[in-house]
Protein: Tr-type G domain-containing protein
Amino acid sequence: MSTTTVSKLATALKLSSEKLILQLNEAGIDVADKDDVVSNDQKLLLLNHLRGSHGTKSTASSAPKKLTINRRSQSELKLSGSFGRSRTVTVEVRKKRTYLKKETLIDQAKEELEEQKKLEQEKLKQIEEEIQNQKLESAPTEITDKDQPKISVTDEKLKDTSHKKDKGLKKKKRKNQVDEDPYLIKELHVKGKVKKRKKRKIRRSLSSAILDQAHTFEKPTSPVVKEVMIPEAITPQELAQKLSMKVNEVVTSMMNLGVIATANDNLDQETAILIVQEIGHKAVPMDERTVEDTLFDDEDNTYEKVDRPPVVTIMGHVDHGKTSLLDYIRNSKVVDKEAGGITQHIGAYSIEHKSHSITFLDTPGHAAFSNMRARGANVTDIIILVVAANDGVKPQTVESIEHARASDVPIIVAINKIDMPESDIEKVRNEMIVNEIVPDDLGGDCLFVNVSAKTGDGIENLLETIVLQSEILDLKASKEGRAVGVVIESGIESGKGAVATILITEGRLNKGDLIIAGEQFGKARILMNENNKELNFVTPSMPVRVFGLSSTPNAGDEIRVVRNEKQGKEISTLRKDRNRVSKLNDQKILKMKNFMEQSMDSSKKTISLIVKADVQGSVEAIRDSLLKLSTDEVEVDIISSGVGGISESDINLAT
Structure:
């Protein structure tokens, strides 16, 4: 035990030795001189004495009641890693312990016992008050007529006080009830309890029933008819989900209808509608509002509409002088450039006649190019039907008449080759009347003009007739806003890539605009007219060749200007996906058809072909002509077709 002298302690406390000796004596420590020794226990007694004299608690009372000890221990752990390497991880363990004095625990237990006793006493008092109130309510009293109002007043007061007390003591059990009239009390008590029990039982039974029925399936009393929206392409798996059925049931219904497909095969809209109706539900074709629909709906051209040049299509039988007639009008020699002197492409040209612009479309007259003629009739305002005076009406002439009627377009009949000695104009007029094309001088609605593409006779009269007919039609279109047009022809030019001949029907196409034509998207890098002259912009009824598309679009596709590259690519992707699904469906139908035919007749041979041409229209004509060559013994199968030269992938596909 360490000790010190009084003088040293006084120096440490910054007190005089005399004052410290006095304080030690007051604390009960016998010290006389400054050299006397003071122990640690004596120092503690002095400290408690000083605290007591200054009004603070002693060290014993101020000692901490709760002690918390935190311990930490660290260790290292080696872990093996990849490639034979090991790494060391430091692990730290933290422990925390709390110690309480026994005195504090005893005090807490005493306080809890006292609180419990107080609560029990309060409960007993409340029960006694309830018993007394019930005695007062059930006690029999003899009432006279004079005292009746007084007693009734007191009864009402007692009832009011009892109700007020009952409100504060709801849902508590009543025990040890003793009365003068036990029968009445018992009856009232039992009656009240029975009501409560019944209510509780009913509530419990209802809640349990609700819980039991929460996840149960109720069988419908009548058949449920669902209304199912059917998109353009849907798989049996998706159809089963919409009908809330198993896929096997849908596939079984398909087999009953003769449709063989797996759960992930695509079905076209018509087949899916038949399957849904076979199952017993209602099918509604879905009107798919794609991004392109919403985009183009917002682009209604509200600009002022002005007069536009007429679009005139020259149609007729092969070698009746259509292109020669147009050459004389344009003062050019296009026939010499065509293979065999027969037009194989749709040519678009624009001329000026007495301050009037006229756009001409020259279509092939050969039987194989019927699709081209139909395309020309769909985009035209006036049709010039060329008939040779020495040859009369031929099959392609009749076909051109049918295209004109289908498009509801006025017809101007140009009787060509009147300079030839064997020409017979009256014969041609009579043959046209047989085909319901009546001249205007005989009360009909068709204008007849006699012309000669060789000498130029009647050409001026023909142009005047076209201008007159266009003024009657009152053709108008807006020359501002985003351009809308039609692809007339498309192909690939060496060194320039994909090129599309288009005809603008509305709006204004500027050089550098972002355009989309069918599946193809690109930028109009070059706008070139029929004379190979570059243009900065194009207005309605002006034919132009556009360079800059990603690939050759299909002839007849609509061409539009889009806002930005993102929208154009999104629309292009949607159209490609849609066409891909339709092609897969067509291939599946063909494969199934071929399988059935091969199983019936194994001797039938198939010739597979790859068709390549310079323009899209020629590809269509060749494909249609080859497919018509199929017979009962030999079938032509075109596995691929396109525009451009033969590539390595085509050779690999053929082999």
User: Anything to note?
Assistant: The radius of gyration is 54 Å. The first strand starts at residue 3 and ends at 5.
